[in-house]
Structure formats: C-alpha cells, structure tokens
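Hi, here's the filled form for the chain we discussed.

Project: internal
Contact: R.S.
Residues: 305
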Amino acid sequence: MPQETLVVKLPPSQRAPLRERLNQGAFEFRSVPHAFFSVKGEGVVATLYKSGKLVVQGADPQTFVARFAEGAKPAPERKKSSPSASSAAAGPTLPMSRTTVGSDETGKGDYFGPLVVCAARVTLEQVELLRGLGVMDSKRITDPVALKIASQLRPELPHCLRVLMPADYNRDWGALGLHTLLSREHAEAIRGVAEPGDRVVIDQFAKKDEIGPQLRDLKLEIELRTKAEAELAVAAASIIARAEFLIQLKELGDRFDVVLHKGAGSPVDRVGVQFVEEHGEALLSEVAKVHFKNSERVRARARRT
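And the returned structure, exactly as it came back:
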C-alpha cells in the first residue's frame, strides 16, 4: 500500500507525554540523527525532531497523529534561512524565481526494494538553507551523505513521499504498466504538497504527459524536463526519495535476513539466487520487481543448484 508523509509541529509540553503514550504501545524505538526519538510500529514510522517537528510516514499518518499526538499543529514553512559558507558550488545551477514543487523518483532501475516518489515544496526563503546543506542531484552523492542531508531536510521542507513496496509494485505494474504507474505516484505526491497555482518541475520519464491531467483542478504550472535535478526543488526531492529507498531496502532485507543490493547487476543476481534457495520462488515478489530480466536468471540458476 502506498505510504504518505505528514509533518506537524508538537508543542514542548506534549513531547514527553507523546513518548509515554508510545512506550505503552507496540512500538520499536530507534535512534535518528537530530531527533529526540523515532518509533516504528502500527504501520507507521514516526520521528520527533529536536525542532519540535513530528514526521509521520505510513499508509495513514493522520490516524496516528489524531490518536497519539495531542496538541499537534500543521508545521509552518521556514521563514528565514542563513547563508552558509559551506554552500555546495557543485549543486543545482538553475536560478529559482518563485516557490517550486519538485518531484522525482528512485528505485525504478533497482531489482530489489520499493519504488519511491517524492515531491518537495521549496520557497525562495529556503534556497540558501538548502544550498548550505549541500543539496544536489542525489546521483552525485554517496548513500551516507544522502541519508544525512535527508535527515536535515525532512523536518524543514514540506514534502510528500509515495512508497510502493515490491508486492504492491508488481501488482500495479502488471495492471497499469510502468508509465501509468509512475504518473499516478508522481501526481499523488505532488497533490500531497502543492498549493493551487504552484510551479511544479518533474524529472521527465516519458514523452506523454499523464500527470498534468490528474492535477488540473489545482491549476499548476507544470514543467516536465530531462535532467531536472538542476532545479533545487527536484534535487531536494531526489535526496529524500533516495534516503527513503535506502531505509526501506535495509528494512526489507532485515525482514528476510538477507543483504539486498541496489541496481540490477551480477551481485543482485547472486543475492536473488540465495533468496530463492532460502525462501522459495513464491516470495521473490515480496522483495523484487519480478518483471526485470534478473528474475529469469535467478530462477534458472536456483533450479540448477
């Protein structure tokens, strides 16, 4: 089931009571940089950052907030940002003249793990903040850097994540095809964060536009272009999406006690054979995008052993 992200502001007086309520439930507490705590359970991952922002990800984050986070309010956008001497010169180069929503996806070319789409809304007041954090195309930075920058972006930047785990991806890919599936996920992510009339930039993945028609009611100014990561908002979305993919990939591997690799090369095939030998072919669709050619190779090699 697709996952969404909700960001709310929690007053100081409610932070300790929230932790106490979660302690009484079936939640696993985890350590996250720049956060008081993070929990996983009941279909969500919830992180309370030191800024007071509570970031909740899951199929129904609104229900979690209503149940556990009394006194929470919608998180305001950051009004001010300070220039940083560490601004990344190699970051996005296109100037931004107005608030922009950027949308990008990751996991599309990875055999294992989910498809993740993220839309992020960036105002002019946030430009220097993002540049100071080193925001650039996520393909140009390492995994640890992507995870670090994403942890700083999440509490500051309005964004919406759509996460299709392999089982749901395989079902929807078979029913819709990749182009229509991607278009649906981008449209839903953008709808989750855009305001009427916003400028929206999407990293183009096909010539035919199936996203715009799904968002006509918002009267958005939509641009589809290749190499859209040159736009700061798209670069920010790409980093948040990549970090989420890495987190979900690891948790999926932990679930089956196997280290799942990125990409679709030979190391991936070897892990696929190991997975089939240990868990059987029927469960391959729980961890992999089974329409990839890797599936044929994995099944053939597993049967020979």
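Let me know if anything looks off before we file it.
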